[in-house]
Write a structure and sequence with these properties.
heterodimer; A: Rossmann fold; 2 domains; B: alpha/beta; eight-stranded parallel barrel; 8 strands; globular
């Protein structure tokens, strides 16, 4: 689940300043669950844009906005979309770029993409994964220090751990203490004397800008 | 050859003091302090943007110390540099004649004067120690051969009063596995607790130098307790500073007493201050 946050209206209006007739594209997956790009939110944007002198052209909520092929046919079939000066997209960065790839219309982002979230319960998300491309969860008791330690340390705890809490935010438990306690339950805490090698930063490597196949290999 | 390494090997009670590079380019007072400490300490630790507050580079300041004929312990953190920059700085340090390095993870930028800075932490203290071990053996972190290897005596930091202790001991063992040859601790104020800690790590057979932090007021002690990770000053000492007519001198008395008790427990001491560097000289005169 990609967690998104609504951009301030003023910022969006500035980005839309050259355009009058605006078509809103929401997202039926993550942004709907984030309550930033579902039916209610699309209607609210239409209302707000109208009240600020814009001419809303309508809205569309694809099941998955991050799906270029699906979007192409949906946008082609929508008369309201083709009549618009610009699209306001209520989706994550992947969704916004899918709309941009599926249409020639100017695109304005209505949301900020925050993180890959684990849903705790409806509307509550936890930042547990950074999609680093170099998963260490097998060695860290199923708890990700890359994401959940503010320093992303592979060999913790650091000297900033005080009474199990984190130096960066003393209301937050040191994630390396969680990892240690989980390992200790299985009497496996001695694995912490082994050195976790530096990350290979796989996900930061340049990828060819062309589709990837399901195997994950570049074409 | 590192004189610090020799002193440890010869079982001397090793004394190091910590100086901060200045925020700016004027080094006159810094050099004066280095001169005052010459011959009175085995080495001077030079901090690396400690508390994430931007200052002159610890590499440049370490070289200034070395140029005055005093051995520096070049502190290097993983907060501001990735593995390329860390390795190239370590090669540079070695070429300049620096022999001792203290490998640290580093405070998070959120604590300092550039909270918006990107935290790097490409390596951590453990993998930095591993990197130094490799550079000493003539190879870089990716096993490329070096034309001339480093000869760095590498140490690490330790928080003896940490709770829970077991994960800290496991991390200490991991740092030893990675190549730590000595440890300098966060400030010690309770020597009984420290002695009990030392009995738990005797099995590693590694030299540990106890941190001594010079206090100068009760207010400072209270602030340190709340603001600095890893520092715990007991109430009894805060009360002593509070009720003293000369708290500054009382702080030095406390450090003198702690030093006396630490002589039987640790292999040396590491003197720190918060902006009162002249107090280091007063303490050295009294021990």
């Amino acid at each position: 689940m990609i967690v998104t946050d609504k951009k301030p209206l003023q910022e969006v209006l500035e980005a839309l300043s050259e355009y009058n007739r605006i078509f809103v594209v929401g997202c039926g997956s993550c942004a709907a669950a984030s309550r930033t790009g579902g039916e209610d939110e699309c209607k609210a944007w239409i209302r707000d844009l109208g009240s600020k002198g814009k001419e809303p052209a309508g809205y569309l909520i694809p099941e998955e906005t991050c799906h270029v092929f699906l979007l192409k046919s949906m946008i082609r079939q929508s008369e309201a979309a083709s009549s618009a000066d610009a699209f306001l997209v209520l989706a994550c960065g992947a969704g916004i770029q899918a709309v941009s790839a599926a249409s020639d219309k100017p695109i304005v982002a209505g949301l900020n993409s925050m993180f890959l979230g684990t849903t705790y319960r409806a509307g509550e998300f936890l930042k547990y994964c950074s999609m680093c491309g170099n998963c260490v969860l097998s060695y860290t008791a199923g708890i990700c220090p890359v994401t959940r330690c503010p320093k992303g340390l592979l060999n913790g705890p650091c000297g900033g751990m005080i009474n199990s809490m984190c130096e960066v935010d003393n209301s937050m438990k040191c994630i390396w203490i969680d990892i240690y306690e989980r390992l200790r339950l299985r009497n496996k805490q001695n694995v912490l004397t082994a050195i976790n090698k530096p990350k290979t930063n796989n996900s930061m490597k340049h990828r060819k800008v062309e589709p990837l196949k399901f195997s994950g290999k570049a074409r | 050859m590192s004189l610090l390494r020799d002193a440890i090997k010869n079982n001397e009670f090793v004394i190091t003091a910590e100086l901060s590079p200045r925020k700016g380019t004027l080094v006159t007072n810094f050099i004066k302090m280095v001169h005052s400490l010459k011959g009175r300490v085995h080495a001077i630790n030079i901090t690396d943007n400690q508390r994430a507050i931007m200052r002159m580079s610890s590499l440049a300041a370490s070289y200034l110390v070395l140029r005055e004929g005093v051995e520096p312990v070049y502190q290097i953190t993983c907060r501001d540099r990735n593995r390329l920059a860390l390795q190239s700085d370590l090669l540079g340090a070695s070429a300049l004649g620096i022999k001792n390095v203290l490998a640290l993870t580093g405070d998070h930028p959120s604590a300092g004067d550039f909270p918006e800075a990107k935290p790097v932490f490409d390596l951590d203290a453990t993998t930095l120690l591993h990197t130094i071990t490799k550079l000493n053996s003539g190879f870089d972190l990716n096993d490329h051969p070096l034309k001339g290897h480093t000869d760095l005596f590498a140490g690490a930091a330790l928080t003896p009063q940490a709770q829970p202790l077991e994960p800290v001991l496991l991390a200490m063992e991991r740092k030893i596995n990675a190549g730590a040859k000595f440890f300098q601790t966060q400030p010690v104020f309770d020597t009984d607790a420290f002695a009990s800690f030392m009995s738990k790590i005797n099995r590693f057979g590694i030299p540990v130098m106890a941190g001594i932090l010079l206090l100068h007021s009760a207010e400072q002690a209270v602030n340190l307790n709340t603001q600095v990770p890893g520092i715990h000053i007991p109430d009894t000492l805060i009360k002593r500073l509070e009720s003293s007519s000369d708290p500054h001198n009382e702080g030095i008395d406390i450090a003198v007493e702690l030093t006396g008790r630490l002589r039987g427990i640790s292999r040396g001491m590491h003197i720190m201050t918060v902006g009162q560097e002249r107090d280091i000289l007063t303490l050295l005169e009294r021990i």
